[in-house]
Every structure is written in C-alpha cells, then in structure tokens.
Specification:
The structure holds two protein chains of two kinds. Chain A is α/β, with parallel strands linked by helices. Chain A folds into two domains: 179 residues, Rossmann fold (3-Layer(aba) Sandwich); 66 residues, no CATH class. Helices cover 35% and strands 23% of the residues of chain A. In chain A, strands 5-6-7-3-8-9 form a six-stranded mixed sheet, with helices on both faces. Chain A has a three-stranded antiparallel sheet with strand order 2-1-4. Chain B is mostly helical. Chain B has one domain: Orthogonal Bundle (MetI-like fold), CATH 1.10.3720. Chain B contains nine helices and no strands. In chain B, helix 2 packs antiparallel against helix 7, helix 3 packs across helix 5 and helix 4 packs across helix 5. The longest helix of chain B is centred in the first third of the chain and has 46 residues. Chain B starts with 11 loop residues before the first helix and ends in a 12-residue tail after the last helix. Classes of the chains: A alpha/beta, B mainly alpha. At the A-B interface, strand 5 and helix 2 of A face helix 6 and helix 7 of B.
Chain lengths: 259, 269
C-alpha cells in the first residue's frame, strides 16, 4: 500500500456532448477534471440541467464520454441510487432487494439472510413481503438504498435520491444515510440541487456551473461526524453553505482553459 | 385490499342493474311481439327463442364446439405468435423495421376479402385450417402491437440498473421487459379473445357452405330455411361465448395484476 491512496474515482477532461441541429453538437457537461478519495462523502451540486446526473452516469459507465476519461478504483463494486426509487412494481420488497444477487445467479435461499439484513439496516424488515405500491415514498427510497447496499459496494453513486421527498422524511433519510456511511465507509458521490443537504452530508462539495456543467467551486466542509441538528445550527454549517452559494454564482470558466 | 378474492370483480349491483334492464327489454319485446302479432319468421318472441334454444340446444352446442375449437386455437396461436414476434422485435430494431409494416398490412386487409384466397390455397378439403388461419390473422395484431408497446414501456432507470448489474439479454427480457409488458399483453389478449371469435365466425360465413359445421354455418342454414328462432338461438349462444371469453380474460388479468398494477387494484370505498 502506498502512502497516498489511489482515488476511488477520478475523471480527466471528462466531457459529454449531444448532437444538436445541423452538424454542431451541444456540450452538456465538462470538461471536468477531479478526483474523489476512497471512503469520502462528496456532494455534487449545481443548478437544474447542469449535467450532474450526466456526470454520475458517465462515472457509472451508463453513458460513454464524448472525450476525456473516468477511472474507478474498483469498478465492479459500484451501486447506483436513482432519483426515483426505481423498484420493480411487480416484485415484492424482498425480491427487489434480492435483484442484484438474482442477476448474479445466486440462489434465493443462499442469500436470504443478507437480503433480510439489508432490509433490517434500513428499518424495513417487517415489510419484506409488501409490494412497492403499498409503501410510502420514503419507504420506497429505503428499499432502493437497501438494494444498492446489498452487494456491499465500495462506491455509492446517488442521483438526487431524496429530492422528491418531503422535508421531514428527507432529513431523516439523510441522517440514516450518514449513520450507514459512518459505519461502512464506502465512497459516496451524492448529487443534489440543495446546498443545505450537500453541506450537511458531505466532507466536500463540488459545485458545477450552468450548462455545460464545469467545476466552479470545491468547498471542504470541515466538521466532524456524527453530525446532527446542532450542526445545522453551527457557524461551520453556515460558513460552508455561504461558500457553496458564493461559488454557484461564479461565472463558468471558458472551455479552452485546461488545468 | 390484497386479500380480497380475485373472483369478486363485480359487486351484486353491477350484475343486478344490467340484468334488470335486460329483463325489462325482454319483457317489452315479448309484449310487443304478441300485441302486434309479429310473424315468427320476422321477429320471434323471447320465449319462442328460449324454446328453440332448448329444442336445438344439443345440436347447436356441437356446432359451437367446432367454432370454439377454431377460436381457441387461433387465439392461442395469436398469443404465441404475437408475443414471440414482439420479443424478436425488441431484440432487433432492424427486424422490427423490416417486418412490422407487413404485420400492419396483414391487419388492415379485410379478412373477408382474403378469405376465398386462403381457402383456395389450403384446399377446400381442409377448410378448418383456412378458418384457423383467417381467425388468427384477425386476432394476432392486437397482441403484437400491445406487446411491442409494452416491451418498450419498461422504466429507463430500471434498464440502467439491469445494465449496471450486468444482466444478460435473457435476464433483462425475463425479469424486466416481459413483466413490464404484462399489463399491455393482457389488454391485447382481451381484444384478441373477442376478435378470434369474430374471425372464426366471419371466416366461416365466407368459406362456409357445406365445408364447415360451425355455428356460423348453422346460422346461414337456419336463415335459408326461415327458421328464425333457431337463428336467434345460435346468436344467443355466440354472444354468451363472447361474454365468457371476455370474463375469463378479465379474471386472468385481475389474478395476474392485482397486487401491483394500478389498473387491477380495487379501491376502497
């Protein structure tokens, strides 16, 4: 082991463009260069449509970059949580969480304990046989997280997972997520449009500009974990929020400038 | 909600009210026929039709069996062919582009117009096969187009998720695309079930005379002999068959979807 650990995720001049009218193409994101250390909790904030989700999909390999590259330290140990719970409506809660193992060819009986343990972790063990439509929005999101965590990923990519939930549910899930992360220490890249949520959760907030999204700020949130309501009222919290907010108003750097 | 019986599709009221209306109409019909002394070969009274149903019932049921056999076989083949072809389309866009227009052509060509041709091709001695083909042509398209739509309707994030977990084509089809398509397939089946029966009857009418022993032929035969009550009796049997097919498929839909699909969920109150 070297003294400087390999970053969990790094991206170099990452760029995504889509075909537009005529022969021109519309740049949706980038160029974006940066790295995310192993075991860290990093948020990616930016205005709607700035390419946050695109960045996450590029990292996950769901989209191919138009130019530049992404490298993952452990590309197979990756889980993704979508903005919607993205559950299969025809399958029970248990079967939804079992899905990653099912697709990997593991027999149901051999992983039953793991599925139940994962549901236990998000507090839904008693709803294993319910169907998604019988659950509230917050519960569905918990199932989605249980499914993401069941493979014990090294990297967790989350695309505005709690954006559609009410304030109370969101704060509760934020706390639960932090507790899980604190215990397991996976690398989390959390996309959100909420400055407050990003500061509350993460060690570091990366700020993206308006379309095409480029990195215009990188704010370190210097506060210990576990964090709680007291942190939401602390000076450190407000300072970090202000720093992120200021960064968001910065003009986007021109594309030609490369670091 | 979920532990309610799947067989309780309709409450007492939803059965009772239409039956009451039907009863009134039949009563009025009976009354008008008697009061105006309408001849039997123009419009027989409901009681006369009932009597004919009892009298000719056994022989009509035999003919119904023939028609039903063609209907069910055509429906089954339409299901297998429609879903099968749609699955192939979902795997290859090129194949879909190449073949779908021809499926549409098959659909928009009136079956009455091609019936004589089909009959000539398969031979008059194998009229049953011609009927099966014609009924299949009619029943096949709703299942195909609904399944094509259904296979496309799977949630895009779920598709991404399957890709992230390295699901094979077969796994994606089996565990994502087909379940997502199921509500569409079932509504296609409900349309096709009725169409298969119509197709069998229409084909028999066209191909009919002497080569067939199904219910449509019995209607023609009864018409030619001016046995109008018998004609009506055969019609009643046909309607009942259509209703039974529709109910059976509705029941199937309810059983398969009731735990997860909004269309099949029984709302409280």
């Amino acid at each position: 082991m070297s003294s400087v650990p390999t970053p969990a995720i790094s991206f170099d001049q990452l760029c995504k463009s889509y075909p537009a009218t005529g022969n021109r193409s519309q740049i949706a994101l980038g160029p974006l260069t940066g790295a995310i250390e192993q075991g860290s909790f990093v948020s990616l904030v930016g205005p709607s449509g700035c390419g946050k989700s695109t960045a996450l999909k590029l990292i996950a390999g769901l989209l191919t970059p138009s130019s530049g590259s992404v490298s993952l330290h452990a590309s197979d140990d990756l889980s993704y949580v979508f903005q919607d719970a993205t559950l299969m409506p025809w399958a029970s809660v248990f079967d939804n969480v079992y899905l990653p193992f099912k697709l990997a060819g593991a027999a149901r009986a051999t992983v039953e304990d793991k599925v139940m343990a994962s549901l236990e972790r998000v507090g839904l063990a008693d709803r294993a046989h319910a169907f998604p439509r019988e659950l509230s929005g917050g519960m569905k999101m918990r199932v989605s997280i249980a499914r993401a965590l069941i493979t014990e990923p090294k990297v967790l990519l989350m695309d505005e997972p709690f954006a559609a939930l009410d304030e109370f549910t969101r704060e509760k899930l934020d706390d639960d997520l932090l507790a899980l992360w604190h215990a397991q220490k996976w690398t989390v890249l959390f996309v959100t449009h909420s400055i407050y949520e990003s500061v509350y959760l993460s060690q570091r907030v990366m700020v993206l500009s308006q379309t095409p999204g480029r990195l215009i700020g990188d704010v370190v949130v210097d506060a210990p974990y576990p964090r709680d309501q007291a942190f939401r009222e602390s000076a450190a919290y407000f300072d970090a929020c202000r720093a992120v907010s200021t960064a968001m108003r910065m003009p986007a750097p021109s594309a030609e400038v490369s670091s | 909600m979920s532990n309610r019986s799947a067989f309780r599709i309709y409450s007492i009221d939803t059965l009772l009210i239409p039956m009451l209306v039907g009863g009134c109409v039949l009563g009025l019909w009976e009354f008008l026929v008697h009061i105006n002394d309408v001849p039997e070969f123009v419009l027989p009274s409901p009681t006369r039709i009932g009597a004919s149903l009892l009298e000719d019932g056994p022989s009509l049921l035999g003919s119904l069996g023939v028609t039903l056999k063609i209907t069910l076989a055509a429906f089954f083949l339409a299901l297998v062919g429609g879903v099968g072809l749609a699955v192939l389309f979902s795997q290859s866009r090129t194949l879909e582009m190449a073949l779908f227009p021809y499926a549409v052509i098959l659909q928009v060509t009136p079956v009455v117009a091609i019936a004589p041709l089909v009959l000539i091709w398969v031979g008059f001695d194998r009229a049953q096969l011609a009927l099966l083909i014609l009924a299949w042509i009619i029943a096949f398209f709703p299942i195909l187009s609904n399944t094509v739509l259904g296979l496309r309707s799977a949630d895009h994030n779920l598709r991404d998720l399957f890709q992230l977990y390295h699901a094979s084509r077969w796994q994606t089809l089996r565990h994502l695309l087909l379940p997502a398509a199921l509500p569409h397939i079932l509504s296609g089946m409900k349309v096709s079930g009725g169409l298969a029966l119509i197709g069998a009857i229409v084909a028999e009418f066209v191909a009919g005379s002497g080569t067939s022993s199904g219910l449509a032929w019995r209607i023609i035969e009864a018409g030619n002999r001016l046995q109008i009550p018998k004609m009506f009796a055969a019609l009643v049997l046909l309607s009942l068959t259509g209703i039974v097919i529709f109910f059976a498929l509705s029941m199937l839909e309810r059983v398969l979807l009731r735990r997860w699909h909004e269309s099949a969920v029984i709302r409280e109150g």
